[in-house]
Amino acid sequence: MGTVSQEAIRELKALMDQVDEPLKRTFENVHQGYLTETLVRFLKAREGNVAKAHRMLLDCLNWRIQNEIDNILAKPIIPVNLYRSIRDSQLIGLSGYSREGLPVFAIGAGLSTFDKASIHYYVQSHIQINEYRDRVILPAAAKKHGKPITTCLKILDMTGLKISALSQIKLLTIISTVDDLNYPEKTNTYYIANAPYIFSACWKVVKPLLQERTRRKIRVLNGSGSQELLEIIDEASLPHFIKREGSGSGSSRHSGQGNENCFSLDHPFHWELYNYIKEQSLIREPIEPIKQGSFHVRVPDPPLERHEITATIECELHKLEHSNGLSDSVNGMKISCGDTDSD
């Protein structure tokens, strides 16, 4: 259970036993039968403080009820061409499993453009993948291996990362805030692959701002890091951009066959996810036709430390802009290194 004491777990469980029935129902979708592991996650996120972990959990459950998160897997993004466009610009996929049975999620952080739909669609897509992971992928892995599996690994490919990524900071802050406050401690380790200079420069100044438990989770690999990853993941479960070390293809959204490129809608994971959501929508609302439209989710305000991190990244990118002789704005967005507010 890490640094979390058994007494803290018992105290938090006693507090959660007292919540109203609506909160209990949505809490079941959160813990999926792994109550202790879930309590530990929230306690870790609040440094073992029971009162703060309880407050965080209540805020999370109320957020789920207010935004109908329990029903989000019955809200398909249609038509399929729109969903394909989102998959083509929000590069994420399940490449396989570690030797311990943890799902391995690959993220094309450098080449994701988030420019094919509104922010609401991308947030909806991200939460749907979170919920599908927690309600379908993780329980199936736990059943297969006969032990609790409640977390995953993530491999972030930084191929193609450019200064223009500044235009995506607002959306990425929204997504990371959703994860921090409502899906805490779901990732065991973040592996950073193919990191260019721009990442190294930002990492140097951001790393000291992170909490120690977060810093311990992040491992910056040497190049693609294939040898290091092969120590914990079989080759068949490595993302395509790791397998192709030296090919120069990186995490290109157009590289490889659909079954190999885990970012593609043609990959089994995404077809299974897409069809699961469509089936759930028909079960929940079998009479009414499925309507096109994004599922709006209210995003909690980011914690103060995230404002500081975001402002630091913006400032560092701004310095790199000037050092490269580029203009003072990216996509018309002015940056001030002395401004720590985020819109």
TrEMBL record:
It holds the Pfam family CRAL_TRIO. It comes from the Eukaryota. Residues 82-239 form the CRAL-TRIO domain. PANTHER family: CRAL-TRIO DOMAIN-CONTAINING PROTEIN, SEC14P-LIKE PHOSPHATIDYLINOSITOL TRANSFER FAMILY PROTEIN. This is CRAL-TRIO domain-containing protein. It comes from Trapa natans.
